[in-house]
Write a structure and sequence with these properties.
Layout lengths: L1 E7 H8 L12 E10 L3 E10 L19 E9 L6 E10 L2 E10 L6 E11 H9 L6 E4 L1 E10 L6 H8 L14 E8 L1 E4 L2 E3 L2 E8 L2 E4 L2 E5 L2 E5 L1 E4 L4 E4 L4 E6 L2 H6 L13 E16 L7 E14 L5 H11 L1
Antiparallel strand pairs: 1-2, 2-3, 3-4, 4-5, 5-6, 6-7, 7-9, 8-11, 9-10, 10-13, 11-12, 13-14, 14-17, 15-16, 16-19, 17-18, 18-20, 19-20, 20-21
Length: about 325
């Protein structure tokens, strides 16, 4: 038969809440979906998400990240009589900055959706960053376009083994269960970008999502006049971005902009320095940035400033002048 749904995304999220937490769908959007099914044989799904109200641009609100308010899904599935799974063909997912052609299979053991999919993905990083990162995209920008294959496995409704065990109850056997936590893996090369005002050179992010944690392999690229070596991870369960101990930046040229954006936390008097010169290096021993509660973040490390000099800015200049007069 046929089934259609149309309404605000907030209302649809409430309706499906007993089966799925659609946190990824923006409340400032509307959803229209149609399902055409032949039981036991095949079905086709079409879904369209469009922004409403003030959400007229691709970017989500300042408080949102990894949330979609504009997208399109086309899925065509055919039943496999041998395995009981559905074969996915001629299926696409589109959001601003990304288009993926999806192949593989999906199944529903014990009523839980499980994916075994490969997504042939074309991406445009500047647009995709605006779509997914919200206001954070102003500070973290990556440039580049390309095409890569992203691998998706497990249940998109269950991100950790703990969640799978809770859903399956006492019958859950982690070694033999057909239901596994959601995971994905892929690589995204970039041609450059900016990190909190500092230009980035080309590099590559090779990452894997597992147990609700998005981990990247070590990333190396230039930053400003120096070099950046980091190994980041994003714990989506706790909304915290972390850097592995030993992540570092080397031989970065000190500039007035760098003093205003970064060094002011360490040496406040350098915040509005008129002129500065020299090099600095930094090594992280602990970096926990809570995306939803930045004031709870912790950053620890070692900062080395090499042969640097600075002249006073507007706030310190009058004080030094007064001190000279007092000395005379």
């Amino acid at each position: 038969g046929d089934l259609s749904v149309q309404g605000s995304s907030a209302a649809v999220k409430t309706i499906v809440a007993p089966w799925h937490d659609a946190w990824w769908l923006s409340n400032r959007s509307s959803l229209a979906a149609e399902l055409h099914a032949s039981p036991g044989r095949q079905f086709a799904l079409r879904a369209l998400v469009t922004p409403v109200g003030s959400a007229t641009s691709n970017a989500v609100s300042d408080d949102d990240y990894l949330v979609i308010n504009d997208g399109r899904l086309t899925a065509n599935l055919t039943a496999d009589s041998t395995t009981g799974a559905f074969i996915v063909n001629s299926s696409t997912v589109e959001i601003p900055g990304l288009k993926a052609n999806v192949t593989g299979s999906v199944s529903a053991p014990n009523g839980v959706l499980v994916t075994n999919l490969d997504a042939d993905t074309q991406y445009d990083l500047p647009t995709l960053s605006q779509t997914l990162l919200g206001s954070t995209a102003e500070d973290v920008q990556l440039h580049g376009q390309g095409r890569e294959v992203i691998v998706l496995r497990g249940s998109p409704m269950l991100w950790t083994t703990t969640e799978v065990a809770r859903q399956q109850g006492s019958s859950y056997d982690v070694a033999n269960s057909p239901i596994t936590p959601f995971s994905l893996a892929g690589r995204i090369p970039f041609t450059g970008g900016r990190l909190y005002g500092l230009p980035l050179g080309p590099g590559e992010v090779k990452a894997q999502l597992k147990e609700g944690i998005l981990r990247a392999e070590p990333i190396h690229c230039s930053i400003g006049s120096g070099e950046l070596d980091v190994m980041p991870q994003w714990d989506l369960n706790r909304s915290v971005v972390q850097l592995a101990s030993g992540s570092r930046v080397r031989n970065l040229q000190v500039t007035p902009e760098l003093c205003g954006e970064w060094l002011g936390y360490v040496a406040p008097m350098m915040t509005d320095a008129a002129t500065v010169e020299g090099l600095l290096s930094a090594r992280v021993t602990r970096f926990d940035y809570f995306v939803d509660h930045p004031t709870q973040s912790t950053v620890q490390g070692v900062l080395n400033i090499h042969n640097a000099s600075a002249s006073p800015g507007s706030s310190l200049g009058p004080l030094l002048l007064s001190l000279r007069k007092m000395g005379n």
